[in-house]
């Protein structure tokens, strides 16, 4: 589960991670008031940041034509105007797709004078099964690009989960970032706080990009988290009611939310051949084989190992809500589940939805003969697929000729 | 022969009285697997299906029945505890079927298992089958949730992260009259007990395994690590398939571990690693068995 930047900041703040003064708001008036307050406290510049679950906000464009989902302002009046241009409008970035996302909240933050930008993240290192701290002196940049171009610039520190991150490890990373003297202490405190946030919230990723060395008005240098991204492990949400409450359904695709209610795993793609499959691996492989034979999958849909009649019916309804869908491929390997139960579910769903699109069904496994008989005797136009390859070719052909 | 388990392996089931655990224990018993004990805290002294004794602890179950392997069907919140109970009791093999365990629980489990003799398979996996010699491969060892009847005793080893895709490969083999030595589902989570590579090494060392099908999917780099080892160490024919070539980056495709993140773990990179190691890659999931059989003397 992803959360907003302002929610990530709230969590990091609870673990003592230092950041510039900030507040969240949802009206231009509040934005202006917060800005005035921050300016009175001595800020020279104010950042106005759109809150959506997508990257590339700064370079995004609003559907109104207004450029930039992140703006720097010098006056409270300017903050108010920018807030007005952002709130209630759709922001399109490279990650949102052309429809964009509605901006309903803004972060208003003091924007200090930045001397240096770093990258910092905590994530799971899958090959060692341990948490790893990743840091780089190339802050503010796309870390994937840094990793590809100059891997030597990435600092990695593996954490032993039995003891957690030790202070010496934080000092080691700080030192590797070139921090010295009285910056080592605060840097270590910040790093330990970021790690603790990751571990205690059961996060899958915490990313601070950029982490900034800034100059305060008093002329002192200090280290602050200027941006924050946090994703959570869905499997662990059951033990974090406070984090569950941070879920923002408006940021999720409506069909995916609907599918979740029936314990279906659905992800919408941009093709026109819908698929309904049992098992995640087989569902991915079904998408792949559709593409292999020249078609384009409209979705990933895993009905799970023990799909019921109701789940099959719900799956058909969800698939059919995607207007791009021109044909459906059902691919079931019923190991333990009864193929006839699935077949009965398909027949009922087709009748109930009045399906007009070409439907190819490939059934294999337990009680498959009874299942095939049920489909054949239903009186419905269902194209039978033999192997996966046969079924995929048939659905691609049916869609291209319909 | 086979790897990890034989038809003689004595198996206990942790979570035998839950509906999921009970159903699959019945199926394993019908398959002919030596299910010798169940463990459900608080139900010690009872019998499952009037034949399998239930114990309160794994240690007691081992002491009374000589079980050496376990299947775990407990809910996700209790799975880490169940795994470590099996490890502490000294089991050779723990197979965790449970899906949805918090990643950090598994990070702790892996750390706690360092230096221990127990091998963990899974979690979030279909388990292991070593087919038997009977009709529909009965008399074999089935730990987990795979359908027993699709198997046939023979000499091909199958390893995969995905359940249904494993069944697909196994069924393709059986339909062509080709049997399997052992089929291992290692699970779809980002942190698991046994990797593709671990299983490949066991297959390489098993004289009864003559060819291998390795099925991978997007996410992580376990397939690449296995391929690198195969390139210089494996003398048996290996065919492979990677699922998820069409998956959009940054999305989890059903399995918690099936995600392309930061440009890493793509199907293209894994397929390239396979080819580089001499692993023949099936062009479609329909041709997994066929691809291997073309490499094997008949």
Total number of strands of chain B: 14
Helix-strand pattern of chain B? EHEEEHEHEHEEEEHEHEHEHEH
Biggest interface reads: A-B, 56 and 63 residues
Rg of chain A computed from alpha carbons, rounded to a whole number of angstroms:
26 Å
What coarse outline of chain A follows from CA principal-axis ratios? elongated
Biggest sheet architecture of chain A: 6 strands, antiparallel
Form type of chain B: globular
CATH topology of the largest domain in chain A: D-amino Acid Aminotransferase, Chain A, domain 1
Main pleated-sheet profile of chain B: 7 strands, mixed
Structural class of chain B: alpha/beta
User: Helix proportion of residues of chain B, in percent?
Assistant: 25-40%
Structure commentary:
- By secondary structure, chain A is of the alpha+beta class.
- Helix content of chain A is 36%, strand content 25%.
- Chain A has 3 domains: 1-20 and 113-251, D-amino Acid Aminotransferase, Chain A, domain 1, CATH 3.30.470; 21-111, ATP-grasp fold, A domain (Dna Ligase, domain 1, 2-Layer Sandwich); 253-401, Rossmann fold.
- Chain A has 13 helices and 19 strands.
- In chain A, the strands form 5 sheets. In chain A, strands 8, 9, 10, 11, 12 and 13 form a 6-stranded antiparallel β-sheet that branches. In chain A, strands 1-7-2-4 form a 4-stranded antiparallel β-sheet, covered by helices on one side.
- In chain A, 47% of the residues are buried.
- Chain B has 2 domains: 11-121, Rossmann fold (3-Layer(aba) Sandwich), CATH 3.40.50; 152-293, Rossmann fold (3-Layer(aba) Sandwich).
- In chain B, 32% of the residues lie in helices and 21% in strands.
- In chain B, the strands form 2 sheets. Chain B has a 7-stranded mixed β-sheet, with helices on both faces.
- In chain B, helix 4 (103-113) links the parallel strand 6 and strand 7 (119-121).
- In chain B, helix 7 runs parallel beside helix 8 (267-276).
- Chain B is globular, with a radius of gyration of 18 Å.
- Chain B starts with 10 loop residues before the first strand and ends in a 5-residue tail after the last helix.
- The mean pLDDT of chain B is 95.
């Amino acid at each position: 589960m992803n959360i907003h930047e302002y929610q990530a900041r709230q969590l990091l703040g609870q673990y003592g991670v230092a950041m510039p003064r900030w507040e969240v708001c949802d009206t231009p008036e509040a934005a202006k008031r917060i800005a005035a307050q921050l300016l009175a406290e001595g800020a020279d510049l104010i950042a106005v940041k759109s809150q959506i679950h997508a990257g590339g906000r700064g370079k995004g464009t609003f559907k109104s034509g207004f450029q930039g989902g992140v703006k720097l302002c010098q006056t409270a009046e300017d903050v108010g105007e920018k807030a007005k241009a952002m709130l209630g409008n759709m922001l399109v970035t490279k990650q949102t797709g052309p429809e964009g996302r509605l901006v309903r909240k803004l972060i208003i933050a003091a924007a200090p004078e930045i001397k240096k930008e770093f990258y910092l993240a905590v994530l799971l290192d899958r090959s060692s099964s341990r948490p790893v701290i990743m840091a780089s002196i190339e802050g503010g940049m796309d870390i994937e690009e840094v990793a590809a171009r100059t891997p030597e610039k990435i600092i990695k520190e593996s954490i032993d989960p039995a003891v957690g991150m030790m202070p010496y490890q934080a000092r080691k990373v700080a030192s590797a970032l070139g921090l010295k003297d009285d910056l080592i202490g605060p840097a270590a405190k910040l790093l330990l706080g970021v790690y603790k946030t990751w571990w205690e919230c059961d996060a899958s990723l915490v990313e601070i990009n950029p982490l900034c060395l800034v100059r305060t008005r008093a002329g002192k240098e200090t280290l602050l988290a200027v941006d924050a991204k946090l994703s959570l492990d869905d499997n662990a949400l059951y033990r974090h009611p406070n984090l569950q409450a941070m879920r923002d359904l408006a940021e999720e695709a409506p069909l995916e939310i609907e599918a979740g209610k029936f314990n279906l795993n659905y992800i919408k793609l941009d093709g026109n051949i819908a698929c309904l499959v049992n098992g995640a691996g087989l569902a991915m492989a079904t998408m792949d084989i559709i593409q292999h034979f020249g078609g384009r999958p409209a979705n990933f849909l895993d009905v799970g190992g023990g799909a019921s009649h109701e789940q099959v019916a719900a799956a058909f309804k969800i698939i059919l809500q995607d207007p791009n869908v021109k044909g459906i491929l059902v691919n079931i390997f019923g190991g333990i589940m009864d193929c006839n139960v699935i077949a009965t579910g398909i027949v009922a769903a087709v009748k109930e939805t009045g399906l007009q699109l070409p439907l190819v069904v490939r059934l294999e496994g337990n009680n498959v003969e009874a299942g095939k008989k049920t489909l054949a005797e239903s009186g419905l136009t269902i194209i039978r697929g033999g192997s996966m390859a046969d079924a995929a070719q048939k659905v691609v052909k049916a869609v291209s000729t319909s | 022969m086979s790897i990890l388990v034989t038809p003689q392996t004595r198996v206990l089931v942790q979570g035998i009285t839950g509906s999921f655990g009970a159903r699959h224990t019945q199926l394993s018993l019908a398959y002919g697997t030596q299910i010798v004990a169940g463990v459900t805290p608080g139900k010690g002294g009872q019998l499952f299906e009037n034949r399998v004794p239930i114990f309160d602890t794994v240690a007691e179950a081992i002491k009374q029945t000589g079980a050496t392997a376990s299947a775990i069907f407990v809910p996700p919140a209790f799975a880490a505890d169940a795994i470590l109970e099996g490890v502490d009791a000294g089991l050779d093999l723990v197979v965790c079927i449970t899906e949805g365990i918090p990643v950090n629980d598994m990070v702790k489990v892996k750390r706690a298992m360092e230096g221990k003799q127990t091998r963990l398979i899974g979690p979030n996996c279909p388990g292991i089958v070593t087919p038997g010699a009977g009709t529909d491969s009965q008399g074999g060892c089935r730990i987990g949730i795979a359908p027993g009847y699709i198997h046939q005793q023979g000499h091909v080893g199958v390893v995969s992260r995905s359940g249904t895709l494993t069944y697909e490969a196994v069924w393709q083999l059986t339909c062509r009259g080709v049997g399997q030595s052992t089929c291992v589902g290692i699970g779809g989570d980002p942190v698991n007990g046994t990797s593709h590579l671990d299983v490949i090494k066991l297959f390489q060392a098993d004289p009864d395994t003559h060819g291998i099908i390795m099925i991978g999917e997007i996410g992580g780099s376990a397939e690449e690590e296995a391929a690198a080892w195969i390139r210089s160490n494996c003398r048996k024919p290996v065919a492979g398939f990677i699922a998820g070539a069409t998956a959009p980056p940054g999305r989890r495709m059903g399995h918690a571990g099936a995600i392309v993140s930061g440009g890493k773990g793509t199907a293209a990179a894994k397929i390239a690693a396979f080819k580089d190691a001499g692993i023949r890659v099936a062009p479609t999931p329909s041709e997994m068995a066929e691809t291997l059989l073309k490499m094997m003397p008949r």
